[in-house]
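Forum > Structural Biology > Help requests

Title: Can anyone predict the 3D structure of Flavin reductase like domain-containing protein?

Hi all, first post here. I have the sequence for Flavin reductase like domain-containing protein but no way to get a structure on my laptop. I'd be grateful if someone could post the structure tokens.
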Amino acid sequence: MGTLEEPSRPVLKRLPTPVARRRLSAQAGLREVMGQFATGVTVLTAGGERAHGMTANAVTSVSLEPPMVLCCVSRAARMHEAIVTAGSYAVTVLASDQKELAKYFADWRRPAGLAQFDTVDWTAGPQTGAPLLDGALAWLECELAEVYEGGDHSIFLGRVVASSRGTAQDSLVFYSGGYHQVDGRIRASA
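Reply #1:
Sure, ran it for you. Structure tokens for Flavin reductase like domain-containing protein below:
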């Protein structure tokens, strides 16, 4: 008995389903799209009476002269008040083996205040007093220079008052809803 062959059909490229048809909110749709943008993973910290830490990937360099970086923090987050109260913040750039630190500082159930740092190794930043987490790729300490409104977040522009580089080689990145490691010795070919 012979087999019937399917007639040859052109391969059609499927277009993404519009957000409205997937029943996602605009916020969820934006989160899905931005999840396709790989970012470094940091922990923002602030010292002082409202000491706090928070995993963040909305951090970027703004200027080399003067040296400035920004971070974006939800106005509803405890970190927001911690930065405003301290008038400064620090950025710990996480190494590839620090995924558990990223998860810990993203978990709202951890203790409040300085107690949240009891289970991690850290040093007080010499300029800001903000906790700098051990074993990282790099650290920045920033004095708060400006605060800008950005929807439900604030954009904190910080003047870098100290920076240092660790000995770790590989970076932790966040992409497509998960943590990934980037080997700093491998370069993309041109």
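The helical segments are 26-34, 78-86, 99-106. The radius of gyration is 21 Å.
Shout if anything looks off.
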